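Run log, item B.
One chain of 341 residues. Sequence copied directly from the ordering sheet:
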Amino acid sequence: MNEQDFDTKALLSGLREGNTLREEQMRELVSYLVSGDASDTFISAVLSLIAVREITPEEIAGGAKALRDVSKTINAPDNAVDCCGTGGDGLHSYNISTAVALITSACGVPMAKHGNRASSSKCGAADVLEELGVNLNAPVNVLEKALQNIGFAFLMAPNHHAALAHVGKVRKELGFRTFFNIMGPLISPAQAKRQLIGVYSKELLKPMGEALKKLGSQKTWLVCGEDGLDEISLNAPTHCLKIDDTETESCILSNEDFGLPSISLEDIRGGDATYNAQALQKLLNGADNAYRYMALANAAAVLVIADKAPDLKNGVAMAAHAIDNGSAKNVLKAYIQITGA
């Protein structure tokens, strides 16, 4: 696709007037943006114009489909689960979803953890796993073997979404969140239909939920803490939208729903990769602290999503057992070995 095939001026004119795009229009637009044919000026203009208004479910779904079209996927079990988030909460917490993926894998859930290096935070999932000895660039056949044999694989986003490099420079220069942050969790290379997705704003719950239904999600929870965490929070109430096939249900989650104590954000404040890796190791070794409680709450949600636990309190008990009997730690150890860092 090149500029002659795509009427950039007409599209920008419509966006300036506040027009929204149909699903197929957005799919074509995003395909063009990541094709390598779009100019940086055009990319910047599109991202900026859409960022100043609310994005629609049709636009989210169309963009996600375009990115899925050019993604490098892996063969994963039908019941594979992903837990990740939009990022951008600015709170620099420990790597909670990474811990959750290891814990729930130890509970028998095939976890295809989609992630990347830090962008707005000090340490992303990739950074902490690399610090612990994981080979982030393991080939697809190794990832598939790990997911099958261990029940865990880390899917390094740039290795599966190379086309996004065409918009990377502009996104970095703009310095604000764009619709690509919203679409990131929706383009699992494992094509996971069950997910726990953290979002940075509760205003995104409904449009992302509607988009997920269009994308064929089976069972997904979208969560956003009242304190801004893109996780289930134990510091404040958490807004949650549950998608079960075509049905949706909104609710507010609190620490009491999990039978866990409330925590302070300061108690889960992370640091660089070395600092966060040490904290994750302590958690897997059974440390009793706020990081553990946050991991247990979010792991419990994953276990309910995966139909492994009947409710959140049972999920907490299962997750705690997986930590305390060493199973979660063993998942990490086995994954380091199989990826051959």
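Observations after the first pass:
- The radius of gyration is 19 Å.
- The first strand starts at residue 81 and ends at 85.
Flagged for discussion on Thursday.
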